[in-house]
Specification:
three-stranded antiparallel β-sheet, about 40% helix, 6 helices
Amino acid sequence: MARTLREGGFLFITFPFMSPLRRLKVKMGMYPCHTVNDAKSKCENFYQFALSAKKVQHDLKRFGYCLVERRSLEGIKGLKDEVKIVNPWLQEVYDGKRGRIYRPLLDAFLLLFAGYIVLLVMQKVDQPIMRSLIRDV
């Protein structure tokens, strides 16, 4: 990124993140294993990493990018994948078979605590600004 993006250029990055719902499930011990590097626990059902959006944002700031926008996405998917009891109903909403009218409202509400991925829009700042940002970190 540092080599290919010009100063003032924009970086759009999405990734699965630790939503409030996922953080709650970790605190309650609801995931079978919490680390992939632990040789004793074989994460046979490992699906994907979920990152801390704040940490990714902080790390990108250290490399000369400033946040333009942060947005959670896919609230319905986040809840249906994490809470199995609502999965059948939400899967139909997610696939568009039911609730085309109320899907946007439901998704917007669920984004508050169950977003599936996060979008960070970052802008590469010029070198003098970058040096002052690194000092502030």
